[in-house]
Structure formats: C-alpha cells, structure tokens
Amino acid sequence: MKRSNFKVRKKNDRVSLTEDIRNHVIYSLSKEVKDASEWDAGKALALALRDRLVERMIETRDRYRRVKAKRMYYFSIEYLLGRCLGNNLCNMEILDLCEDIFKDLGYDLDEVRASERDPALGNGGLGRLAACFLDSLATLDLPGCGYGIHYEYGLFRQSIHNGYQKELADYWMKEGMPLQVARPDQSVIVPLYGRVESAATPSGDYLPMWVDWDDIIGVPYDIPVVGYGGKTVNYLRLFAARASENFDMDIFNHGDYIRAVQRKIESEMVSKVLYPTESVSFGKELRLVQEYFLVACGLRDITRRFLAQNKNFEEFADYVAIQLNDTHPALTVVELMRYLVDERRIEWDKAWEITRATCAYTNHTLLPEALELWSVSLIEKVLPRHLQIIYEINSRFLKKVESKYPADNEKLRRMSLICEDGTKKVRMANLAVVGSHSVNGVSELHSELVKTRLFPDFYEFAPQKFNNKTNGVTPRRWMLKANPALAALLTDTLGKGWITDLNELHKLEEHINDSEFRARFMEAKRTNKIKLGNFINSTLDINIPPDSIFDIQAKRIHEYKRQLLNVLHVIHLYLELVDNDVEPSCSRAFLFAGKAAPGYWEAKQIIKLIHSVAKVINNDPRAEGLLKVAFLPDYRVSLAEKIVPACDVSEQISTAGTEASGTGNMKFAMNGALTVGTYDGANIEMLEEVGQDNFYLFGLKQEEVEKALREGSYHPREIYNHSPEIRQVFTALLENRFSPDEPDLFRWLVDKLLTDNEQYMHLADFKSYSEAQKRIDRDYAEKEIWAAKAILNTARMGKFSTDRTMLEYAEDIWKIKAVK
Ligand code: 26V
Fold first, then answer.
1. Active site residue 561
2. Residue 2 above 70 pLDDT?
3. Is residue 546 predicted with pLDDT exceeding 70?
4. What angle do CA 795, 689, 486 make, to 5 degrees?
5. Which of 123, 149, 487, 775 is most deeply packed, by most CB within 10 A?
6. What burial class does residue 253 get, using C-beta atoms within 10 Å of its C-beta: 0-12 exposed, 13-18 middle, 19+ buried?
7. Could you tell me where the DSSP H helices lie in 330-375?
8. Is 496 among the residues known to form the active site?
9. What DSSP assignment string belongs to 556-574?
C-alpha cells in the first residue's frame, strides 16, 4: 500500500463555512440561496460539516496506518447515539460561530437542531454507554471504532393514551442522515443456513465443508465520530442487510419468481428493526441472525484490513482487539475460530490462542432472565458449522476442567457451554467467558458479583481474567452540550481544561465559600429548571413552579429499578397532606420518564399508575403549590439532555445488587443534582467520591438483600402490619382513590408487594427511603447549604468521565495507544 500524507484543507472560519453552506444549498440541494428555507440551511450546514469530518476521518486513518497502530473494535448490537449535529459542532468548537452565521442568514440554528431526529439504535444504558465510549476514544486519539447494525427502525417511540403506553415505529432516517457515508464498495458477504459435509484432506485430516448456504450482503455505513478539539475522527460502522443476487438461486432456477423475491425481501429483514429489551426476544430466529450478522460483517471487515497490512495471522492479536459489549456478539469467538481454522487453515490450538488474545467480554447485568440462551437446534439450523465448533470448544474446555477437578460432574455440568436441562441450549455467557482473555463488570460491586454470583466456577478456574471497569459518561454531551449555562460558568471559573480532564472540576472546591459563585451556580440550575418547566407546561399543560425541588427518576421502567417505591412515597406525601394535615416543608415536583418493554405488563401498569396518581394530585387544589407529578413521554437522549441539567434530586433507588452500574446517576450528579440512592452499582463509588454529607443513602445493603432472599426471611406483610404509612397508601390504592373509574386496577401491585420474598424488597426499604426524603426536604430549605452540596457533586464527579474508563480499558485490556 502506498504511503500517503493526507492534508485537511477545509477551514473552520466564518468565511469558509458560509461559503460552503451556500455552495451546498446550490450544488447539493439544487436551490437558489434566496429560496432556501431554514431547514435547507440546516441540511447544507450538515453537509459542510460532513466535508470537514470526512477529511479528518481520512487524515486519522492515515495517521493510524503510518504507525501500524493496534486497533480496538467495539462490537455492540446497540448504539444510543442521540442527535449528531449539535454534538459534532460542539466537539469541533464551531457551535457559537455557526449560530452566528445562521443569525446573519436570518435563521435560528436552535430550531434546526431541535428538528433532528434522535438515532435511537439502542434500548438504554448499554447502548448509551457504547456511544459515550466512542466520544472518549476519539477525544483521546485512541484507534478505536464501533461496529453495529444499521437498523432501519430504532427503539419504538412512546406515546401515552389514557395513561397507557402505546408503541409507535421509529423510522429515524425519514429526513435522511446527511452525516453518514455509505461504503457499498466495502460490502461483505455473509453465509448462513445450509449444512456441513464432511470430507478429508489428502493427508486424511477431517475437512468440514459448509455447503448450500444462503447469503446476505452487509453494506457498511460510516458515521464519523469526532473527538473534542476536532483532531481525531474515528467512525461507527453500521451494517445494513441487503439481499444478495445469489440468494436462493435455486428457487429462481426452479422458476418460482415470486417466492424467490419474497426470500430476498426476507433477507433484508435482518437489519430492519432493533429488538426492545425483553426476555421473549431470546429464541427468535431473526434476533440470532442479527447477532451473527453483526459478528460476521465485523470480522470480515477487520480481517480484510489486517490482510492489507500483514499476512501473518499469528500476529493478529498484536493489531486487533475486539470488545464484546455483553453476550450479544459472543459468536465472535466462534466465527473467528471458523475463519482461522477453516479458511486460513491454522491449527486449532494456535487459532484458539489468537482468538482468546483478541476477544474481551463485558458483562452488563446480573438479572438471570437477561442471560442469553440459544437452543442448539436453532443454531444448528442457522449456523451448522458454528454449532460443530461450539461443541469442539466445549469438549476441549471441559477436558481441561476435568483434569483440574477430576470426577466433579456437577462442576462440569455448570461450566459446560451447553445447558442440558430440558431442550439443549448454548450458554452465550459461558462461551464469551471461555473465549476471552478478559471479563469485566461495570462497577466495583457489580464486578465482585460477576465473580462470586454469576461465574464463581470460572473465577476459581481463571481468576486473572476477571476485572472491573467502572462506567462513565462523556462530559462533552452531558455537560458542555446539554448544560450550556453551567458549562459557561465552569469555563469562566476554571478555563476549558475540565472539558477533557474532568478531574479539574476538583478546583471548584476552592470557590465553595464564595457566595457569588454559589449564587451563579444555583442561577444556572434555575435557568435550566425554568426551561424544563416551560417545556413541560407547553407539552403536558402541567405548571411546575421553578422553586420547587425537581425530583427526577428517568430510566427504563423495570421492577428492579423500583419506580414503584418512588410512587408509593409520592402517594404517602399526598395522603399526609390531605388526610393527615401534614404539609411538606418544600414544594416538590416528581418527574418520571422511561419506556416499558412492549411485552412487560407490570412495567406498563406502572406507567399507568404514575399517570393516575398525577391526575389526582395535580387536580387537587389542596396540593397546589406543594406537590406536582408528571410523566414525560418518549424518554430518549434528546429528552434526557433537557431533563438532566434541571434536576435537584436524582432517584437511583434500585434494590441493592440489581443495577450493574447505572450511568444516569453520573449524568445527574455532575450537573449538580443530589442523589437519593441505594448502596448499589456505581452509586457506591459516587458516594465514596462526594462523601456521606452530599448523598442521601438509604436501604438494605446487597448482602442483606441476598441473605433475606436466600433464607426466605422477607415477610412484607409484617412490615405492612407495623407501618401505618404503608397501610394508608395501600388502603388508598385498594379503595380506588387513584382509579375511581376502574375498580381494582392497582390491586395487583398491593398483592405483589405483599407476597413473601418479593424479589425487589420494596417495602423493606420504604421507611429508610422516606426518612432520606425528609432529610432532603430539610436541607433544601437551607439554600446555602444545598448550593454547597450541589457544587460538591459537580466538583467530585471527575472519576465518572468515560475518558477515565477508556484509558483503563486501553491500558489493561486492549493494549492500544493514542496516535496523536
Ligand atoms: C436485559 C433484560 C433482558 C430480558 C428481560 C429483562 C432485561 C432487563 C435488563 C437487561 C439488561 C440489558 C443490559 C443493560 O442494558 N445493562 C445496563 O448496562 C449499563 C451499562 O453498563 C449499566 O449502567 C446498567 O446498570 C445496566 O442495567
């Protein structure tokens, strides 16, 4: 390959940008400048931005090639990107300039930005984490790119009818996606289905032949990922499935034209839609094909790039690291083995060494129902050769286990890649652990539980591969872009260093006794609260006084996250007020947002409950000025960017031991919210950073939860019998005070929460939760004290930047270095 030295030509000054916007209006949109609408101008700006990104993307690729850098490929079935235009302008440091240019042209850039649809190619935490990682990799000049699926439909949009969630299709590319770069020339062919024929080599070795397969084409689309400062531009490569010309040639040849076309269309289904997080998606053939499609496209792309620089696969892991974002891409282990053994004819042991040195696996959840199991018969149908390889990996692995623990059949049964209870299934987590040199959890507590609860046998067998990498979030999107009021104050006070070194925020502590600084900090918060208040008023017609506490729980709706505990407490406050004449000492707005998986009945009922409670409280004149409740529909990245900066109290109240890390908790705290939270996930590390006085801790510890549930000693009815508060709340629910037209609507939840050993132990934590909330009321009333606590939360969140997280992965797992 020829050495090149690509030079970036496009300038970021007013004249060049204006010129390029005008040119794109004419040459790309085919309009006269005087006829361009605001929307046209936005599109032209995006294209001018794209020119700059593409140049820098080429320059970055050049730079990596010149030093033959080892690269990391992040394999993830989800990326929750959020809007790109503002984020890119921000990272290129031309947002203010472009706002100005737009003003001169007579347009409003804010409106253009607000009209961009969120690419929502993810469900929640796991997908958003992947997006934050990409931002940090580029900002740190690390050679790391994302690989994923170019879904045509992202996560469903949520609309609310009569308090119930309805799902709508999310056709996110309706207005096009000007920033992406299609690369049909780099398409790959992915085989699937068919069967394996055994043959032998001339020397008599077993020679498997995968024959009669169908194929799908994977067409890559690159979304440029620009780091802060605009120097490095990595990419997120998303593959779209296209029917191949060969697909089912057989049927064509037999003359059944319509059936053949139908099969072609079916093959394009693979990248049609993102599955919402639900246990029922395991077992769906299309989902398995999606997981394989990502892995197969990604690996073909990587091996082609490797071969362009190097022919010696023994060195593969010196140049390539692959991070498996959960078990969804666990087939990487198998596909890489198949490629090395069947296609490159590398002997098994060597291939296995290369594979394990390449792959690393991150676990993101302890919930047993979330662990992927795929039936052997389904894998055999879709990927017959891969199933053979899985069995081979398993038999060799179990031999090693057996030699270490002779005659321990129970251990062999537990560690096997195949689960033999009932119909045979492949345990994807075991496959990912065995095929990786690193297994990490996403917070200290979670990583401990990964070792002790999830994979104790594997931990005992190979302790050195288990490690922790505490999550983070990118301060570029979650502070600089989402919270311009606070960002301006921080830069004014500290300079710009905090944007790329979040530990700089520690220096805010020097200003904590400066009453003017405190006033400015709280003024920024107030500005954000007024903005969110206006948004809520205009969309939901609910009036929220800006001086009330903005108490927010925004995340997917799930029983383990315990939105129910929050609602029970809201009901309690309301009943105290109207039945017991006890007024809260501060006015409070309880805000909720989050989607429920379409098939998750309880989660959907929780949404209905929140709406029902809101309706009663918001319409009761006795609660006016004291309590408000609102559910903000269609939670997504762009809505989070409005919510997070306006928060006073962040609800992080999962049952201890259930939330792997949480990342919303970090976003809220770095924007000056105080957390009311359990000793769970990354809350624990946040508490360590900010100190007990600046965090409202409550509830049982993980060991206490585990012990109670193990011994079966949790009897919620006893708690109920001793708690007049809980009885009052449940009585109100059973008397249908929040469902006057639908008797018994919420009986299910009273029954469920009173059931012995209720999994998430809601009632066990009710009292200490309510006490923590009382402390919040008291502290909030002391304005200066609250301001100091809020500032300390921002000042002490430096650890939770994904810059820190990415540097740890780069050093400990991937062994990649910055290429500046
Ligand atoms: C999966 C499933 C599948 C079936 C039914 C219910 C269910 C519930 C949860 C999940 C978790 C999917 C993985 C995930 O998103 N984990 C989240 O990852 C974040 C980033 O590491 C972390 O901050 C969150 O705590 C964790 O829940």
1. yes
2. no
3. yes
4. 20
5. 149
6. exposed
7. 332-338, 348-358
8. no
9. ---GGGTHHHHHHHHHHHH
> Is 555 an annotated catalytic residue?
yes
pLDDT of residue 279: 75
Whether 477 has a pLDDT exceeding 90, the answer reads yes
User: Given this model, what pLDDT does residue 246 score?
Assistant: 65
3-state secondary structure 657-696: CCCCCCCHHHHHHHCCCEEEECCCCCHHHHHHHHCHHHCE
Residue 667 annotated in active site: yes
Q: In the prediction, which pLDDT does 252 show?
A: 56
Mean pLDDT of 297-313: 95
Q: Ligand 1: which of 364, 478, 666 to mutate, most ligand atoms within 8 Å of CB?
A: 364
Q: What is the average per-residue pLDDT within 300-328?
A: 97
Q: Tell me: pLDDT of 563 over 60.
A: yes
| Domains identified in the chain and CATH numbers | 67-82+118-181+218-237+280-470+806-814 (3.40.50.2000), 548-783 (3.40.50.2000)
Helical pair 14-27 and 38-66, crossing angle rounded to 10 deg: 110
Binned at pLDDT 50, 70 and 90, residue 483 comes out as very high
Phi and psi for 132 in degrees, rounded to 5? -65, -40
For 595-620, what is each residue's pLDDT tens digit? 999 999 999 999 999 999 999 999 99
Tell me the residue ranges of DSSP E strands in 194-253: 195-200, 206-211, 214-226, 233-243
- Residue carrying structure tokens 């990649």: 816
- 114 Cβ inside 6 Å of ligand 1: no
Using pLDDT thresholds of 50, 70 and 90, give the confidence band for residue 575: very high
Contact 322, 400 (CB under 8 A): no
CB atoms within 10 A of CB 771: 12
Taking the centre of ligand 1 as the mean of its atom positions, its distance from the CA of residue 661, in whole angstroms, is 9
CB 662 near ligand 1, within 6 Å: yes
CA of 659 to the centre of ligand 1 (A): 8
Residue found under tokens 């394990």: 356
Does 482 score more than 80 pLDDT?
Answer: yes
8 Å CB contact between 241 and 271: yes
In terms of Cβ atoms closer than 10 Å to its own Cβ (0-12, 13-18, 19+), residue 368 is exposed
pLDDT attached to residue 655: 98
Does residue 175 carry a pLDDT above 70?
A: yes
Q: Which of 328, 555, 588, 604 is flagged as catalytic?
A: 555
Q: Is residue 281 in contact with ligand 1, taking CB distance under 6 Å?
A: no
pLDDT exceeds cutoff 80 at 741? yes
3-state secondary structure (DSSP) of residue 162: coil
d(CA 42, CA 105): 11
Q: Do strands 233-243 and 320-325 pair parallel, antiparallel, or not at all (unpaired)?
A: unpaired
Q: Is 682 in the pocket of ligand 1 (CB under 6 A)?
A: no
- Looking at residue 259, its pLDDT comes to 77
Give distance in angstroms: CA of 364 to centre of ligand 1.
Answer: 6
Report the alpha-carbon distance of residue 61 to residue 6 in Å, rounded: 9
pLDDT given at position 256: 76
Question: Which residue of 123, 126, 665 sits with most ligand 1 atoms within 8 Å of its CB, as the best mutation to test the pocket?
Answer: 126
pLDDT of residue 251 exceeding 70, the answer is no
Q: Which of 300, 437, 481, 561 is catalytic?
A: 561
For the chain, the average pLDDT equals 96
pLDDT in tens, 332-347: 999 999 999 999 999 9
Packing angle of the helix pair 766-781, 783-795 (nearest 10 deg): 110
Residue 42 amino acid letter: G
Angstrom distances, CA of residue 494 to CA of 31, 503, 524, 683, 795: 45, 12, 16, 27, 11
Mean pLDDT of 408-430: 97
CB 141 within 8 A of CB 232: yes
Q: Exactly one of 364, 385, 446, 476 is catalytic; name it.
A: 364
Alpha carbon distance 131, 120 (integer Å) = 11
365 Cα: distance to centroid of ligand 1 (angstroms): 5
